[in-house]
Amino acid sequence: MFSRRNIFLYGTLIVVAVYYLLPLYVMVVTSLKGMPEIRLGNIFSPPLEITFEPWVKAWSQACTGLNCDGLSRGFWNSVRITVPSVILSIAIASVNGYALANWRFKGADTFFVILIVGAFIPYQVMIYPIVIILRESQRVAIGRALVRDVDVFLFDEPLSNLDAKLRSELRVEIKLLHRKLENTMIYVTHDQIEAMTLADRIAVMRGGVIQQLDAPQTIYNRPVNRFVAGFLGSPAMNFLKGELEAGTAPVFKADGVSVPLGRYQFDGDGGRGAKPCIFGIRPEHIAFGDAAAAMPFTAESTVEIVDPMGSDTLVWTKLGGQIISFRVEADKTLRNGDAIRIGFDPARASLFDAQTDNRL
User: Fold this and answer.
1) pLDDT digits over 173-224, tens only?
2) pTM for the whole thing?
3) Which CATH superfamily is domain 233-353 in?
4) Bridge partner list, 186
5) What CA–CA distance (Å, rounded) separates 14 from 18?
6) What is the dihedral of CA 349, 350, 353, 355, to 10 degrees?
7) Number of Cβ within a 10 Å radius of residue 142
8) Dist CA 341 CA 334 (whole Å)
9) For residue range 219-232, what is the model confidence (pLDDT) as tens digits?
10) Do 100 and 112 meet the contact criterion of CB atoms below 8 Å apart?
């Protein structure tokens, strides 16, 4: 028979185990469901149809900071640091245990205390010098490449493993070196900030195929397709699904909203014929308040979410029944539910064919 003490002890252990394991269960089960099933709201029910798409997207497409190439890079970086550190910690603890059990000599107690304290030093501290060496090795590798007298340099993501501060410093150094050396540099990166700040010309690639090759501002303002438009810009370009009504005065329509396109510069014959299309406008090109009144297009809307960013504020609202975002100055005070007026110049927008995703 179990005593009251044992019942209390095992009951407590079960409660604690459930408390810590239940969130893990919910996380794993939810990750195996599709969005329609998640919206049903039962977080504890097992998936009706198992899907691994969220895992695949997280591994290859999830955004961490400014990089949107998935969690694989960070995972392997962590493995390279964590595994050697854990092995080192276990080795020290094993030596301590063996020494305490078998070795006895003068001053042994003091020596063993030092070893035991060493076993409890966080492994990050023990591996930190290696991390510093890795960071500095990036500078050394870049310097070793630049001292060679060649016409073309190829950089393959040289700053990818550095923290944001050091990455920013080295970007400046590389740009100054490029200006001084006047060599051609081919720089491969997934970081849009590196591409925009360092390049004279950018080649945006998808699946090994160049989508657009042009000056940074041209790509930013006139992307050739929806992929390029969504790839550059943080926060990303707003996309609205709707219809293009062509004619002498073409108009974009979406759920009661009509945007005149008389000022929009179509590519070729893109403005001929009615067709489903996607209207793109960047958050920084949307005006708010008094500035919106002077824009060719204005609309009344309601604040959905306010995201303070420090230097400015990102505001989320709806236009044509679809969520969009825009930037305002940091000193502007907006709250959820506030009625606002927004506006923009359609000439700064981008229009894409809904079927081909190419610019119209």
Assistant:
1) 888 888 888 888 898 988 888 889 899 999 999 888 999 999 999 999 999 9
2) 0.61
3) Nucleic acid-binding proteins (2.40.50.140)
4) 154
5) 6
6) -110
7) 17
8) 12
9) 999 999 999 999 98
10) yes
